[in-house]
Amino acid sequence: MRTTDRLVSLFPALVLLASLAALWKPELFTWFTKDFITYGLGVIMLSMGLTLEMVDFRRVFTMPWLVCVGVVVQFIVMPLMGWFCARALNMPPAFTVGLVLVGCCPCGTASGIMCYLGKLDVPLSVTITSVTTILAVVLTPALTWLLLQGTRVDVDAAGLLRTTAQVILGPIALGVLLNHYTPRLTARVKDGAPVAAVLAVVLIVASIMGAGKVLILKSGFKLLFAVCLMHIGGFVFGYLLGKIMTRREIAARTVSIEVGMQNSGLGAVLAQRNFPLLAGAAIPCAISSLVHSLIASALAGWWRQSSDRYHHEDESRSRTR
């Protein structure tokens, strides 16, 4: 494993340590706030763009059914899980917004490295992440508005759409174009892009955790349980639906990782910029980043042991069809 991959594989541990440090001494991270968080998300999206090539988007046409399964399951399971957990546990308006919003976000940018560590289908992972991220420009605001109807929360759908487009399309498009037209330049920084994205996520999560220390401690285990339930549901239903619809073990595991991991940094920025009157709306997004990273890393370690056998079985099944 490359040094960069090893550093990125420490992502769950870094998020956990930074979160604990932020709850212990918030001032260590609360300086990273407001515009810094938005810029941090820009770094994450730019880093993602720098690792993408035009061929990644053409893969949609080489494995259309598998990509379609991942995208559809992602935008059905996680939004509904966020909504269900908020309603079932009677969460306050701010936490309800946070849970629904992070549930409506696209796949997490760290899902690819988790699939790599678990010896899963990395090209499929990258393609699903790319497609869901682009579709999120429209689907994240639309689904958030739809699921929050009937609550006491006013949703500015146009504002959500505008913010989502700004923080996703610009940085990713810039990264892809730089990678395509200036390959020598991007080759020098490409290996460091995932590390920069990881550090940005860690700072965003720790900043929100530190700023929301009082609300987090006041909520006790209820909010943590809601976030855990949402992501466990995402991983479980992602796997089950992926297995039913593809009949391939490796594809099902890959879909599970993609569905269970959310772009929590995007959720945090959208919460802060579009729901400023709801103190704590970004907190579920920060906790989400910690929870899905720990679950995904555990699954990757567990699945890695048996992935080679299932790769051979899936290949044999494909040849006999």
Order of helices and strands: HHHHHHHHHHHHHHHHH
Q: Roughly how much helix do the residues carry, as a percent range?
A: over 70%
Instruction: Count the E strands.
Output: 0
CATH class: Mainly Alpha
| Named CATH architecture | Up-down Bundle
Tell me the distance between the termini.
Answer: 34 Å
Principal-axes shape call: globular
Q: How confident overall, as mean pLDDT?
A: 87
Unreliable residue stretches: none
User: Which fold name corresponds to the CATH topology?
Assistant: Na+/H+ antiporter like fold
Protein model, in words:
With 321 residues, the chain is mainly α. The chain has a single domain (3-320), classed as Na+/H+ antiporter like fold, CATH 1.20.1530. 81% of the residues lie in helices and 0% in strands. The chain is built from 17 helices and no strands. The longest helix has 26 residues, at 122-147. It is globular. It starts with a helix and ends with a helix. 53% of the residues are buried. The mean pLDDT is 87.
